[in-house]
Amino acid sequence: MKKISLVQMKANQRGKIFEIASGSALVARLMSMGIYKGREITKLSHFALRGPVTLKVGRTVMALGHGMASKIIVEIE
Fold it and tell me: How many independent structural domains does the chain possess?
């Protein structure tokens, strides 16, 4: 298992959230969106030059800013 940030994942790649490397405020905000440790996610796309990252969590599609996405560490196969 390899651990990389959400930003480094390729499009349509799946993984499981290993860690959220940030403070409790961001962790709480992400948890309210359904993003938490152990959750399976799929990265859909990434806009160039530090743009937002589009991902699928469960049946929900959402976009996160580059800074938030870089703090999410994902375990991929």
Answer: 1
